[in-house]
Design brief:
Helix content: 25-40%
Oligomer: single chain
CATH topology: GMP Synthetase, Chain A, domain 3
CATH class: Alpha Beta
Strand order of the largest sheet: 1-2-3
Order of helices and strands: HEEHHEH
Number of helices: 4
Distance between the termini: 21 Å
Number of strands: 3
Strand content: 15-25%
Shape: globular
CATH superfamily: BolA-like
Length: 105
């Protein structure tokens, strides 16, 4: 199973999201070919209602603790309630360009 599929599976179970988009952005970074280490997560869930941003991020970090301890180098998290997602018309910020560096192989 790919890292992207693992993230999708674990967050689906943890958040029961209305929208869950896992985007592999590894190709935008200086890493070995075929790496899966940089991801953008767009998660829309009722589970986020009444929670501050840090609590939402902690929910995701807890669900992906094993992957974050080895494998995932970076997660760009965009967490919204269904109402927030509707207000933003589903738009999120673009990920920044890689500034160099990389993951040791």
């Amino acid at each position: 199973m790919t890292m992207q599929a693992i993230i999708q599976s674990k967050l689906t179970i943890a958040l029961e999201p209305d929208v869950l988009d896992i985007i592999n952005e590894t190709h935008m970074h200086n890493v070995p070919l075929d790496s899966e280490s940089h991801f953008k997560v767009i998660a829309v869930s009722k589970a986020f209602e009444g929670k501050m941003l840090i609590a939402r991020h902690r929910m995701i970090n807890e669900a992906l603790a094993e992957e974050l301890s080895g494998g995932i180098h970076a997660l760009s998290l965009h967490t919204m309630t269904p109402d927030e997602y509707f207000e933003k018309a589903g738009k999120t910020m673009e990920s920044p360009e890689c500034l160099g560096g990389g993951i040791p192989s």
